[in-house]
Specification:
Blueprint (H helix, E strand, L loop, with lengths): L1 H25 L7 E4 L8 E4 L5 E4 L6 H9 L6 E2 L1 E3 L5 H13 L1 E2 L1 E4 L7 H9 L28 E4 L6 E3 L2 E7 L18 E6 L2 E5 L5 H9 L8 E3 L11 H7 L3 E4 L12 H9 L4 E4 H4 L2 E4 L1
Helix pairs in contact: 3-4
């Protein structure tokens, strides 16, 4: 009887070990590009995993929900973010990134470096080893930023501008706005400092414009930038101040994803934006408040 129990435990251990190996194998990159528009409430958080397994996180939502989402999408042994992008320092895009910086190994950070007085922004700058104290923390017109030296694992920091692009294998991150460095600049509307990018893989493209308004959309169009994409993340959560008809006509998306929280006080997405999506022939609109996490796979 004792021997039978002993061998039963050994067999059970072998089965669990085998199951663990199978599960870990299934968590490895599958050679496809995955784009998750994460449901983090009223805010933006986008996780892109390239076919080669690189993880790019664009914004982090308003709170700690991003940690649960990353734990769900990435295997437990994968605690590395290859590139983190803060489109602009409003709380609904920024706050969750502070938590990610504390829990994950972040290799590189891209940001605009605009001047903005916000306690979470100061924490964010501290976590990426830049000068705390946003006011005066950056030299206007300069990409020079001083490391605080309080951490040994400081990520590399890149200032967003049209000349600063990234490539992970066959996935290309083309920064289309801002056109030049915004370090130290002040904005009456911080939304209009948002980093906009076109992420392409083969014949597929995703356009992400943060919270940029129609004013910035017009600037991008005047610059003659390629904004065509089959997937478009609605700007500013589907606000009527963005998602202009001329811009959407240039993008010509087949699908729109709206990062919006359930019952939000802003009335997002706005009816005018939804009408524009219909007018340009969008075949599908998916929303975090209705659909939860939205995954696009190429």
């Amino acid at each position: 009887m004792i021997k039978r129990k002993y061998w039963s435990k050994i067999a059970a251990g072998i089965v669990l070990l085998y199951a663990g190996f199978v599960w870990a194998f299934l968590q490895l990159p599958d050679g496809k590009m995955h784009v998750w528009f994460l449901d983090v409430g009223q805010g933006d958080a986008i996780l892109i995993q390239t076919p080669g397994g690189a993880n790019v996180l664009i914004d982090g939502g308003p709170g700690r929900e991003i940690l649960e989402k990353l734990a769900d999408k990435l295997p437990f042994f994968n605690k590395e973010i290859d590139l983190m992008i803060l489109t602009h320092p409003h709380s609904d895009h920024l706050n969750g990134l502070v938590e990610v910086l504390r829990k994950y190994k972040v290799d590189s950070v891209m940001m605009t470096g605009i001047e903005y007085n916000n306690s979470y922004y100061e924490e964010f700058l501290g976590e990426v080893c830049l000068m705390s104290g946003v006011n005066g923390g950056f030299a206007a017109g300069s990409d020079e930023m001083l490391a605080s030296g309080h951490r040994m694992d400081c990520p590399s920091v890149f200032i967003a501008q049209a000349s600063q692009d990234f490539k992970f294998g066959d996935v290309y991150f083309d920064i289309i706005y801002p056109f030049y460095s915004l370090v130290g600049e002040k904005f009456a509307d911080v939304n209009d400092s948002s980093i906009a990018m076109r992420v392409s893989y083969g014949l597929h493209a995703v356009l992400l414009t943060g919270d940029d308004s129609a004013l910035v959309e017009n600037e991008i169009l005047r610059a003659g930038v390629d904004v065509s994409a089959e997937i478009f993340k609605a700007s500013h959560h589907g606000s009527k101040t963005a998602n202009s008809l001329p811009f959407l006509q240039a993008v010509s998306p087949s699908e729109v994803v709206i990062q919006v929280g359930e019952g939000n006080k802003f009335g997002h997405p706005h009816g005018e934006a939804m009408e524009v999506f219909g007018e340009v022939g969008v075949r599908g609109v998916r929303r975090n408040d209705l659909d939860g996490d939205v995954e696009i796979e190429f």
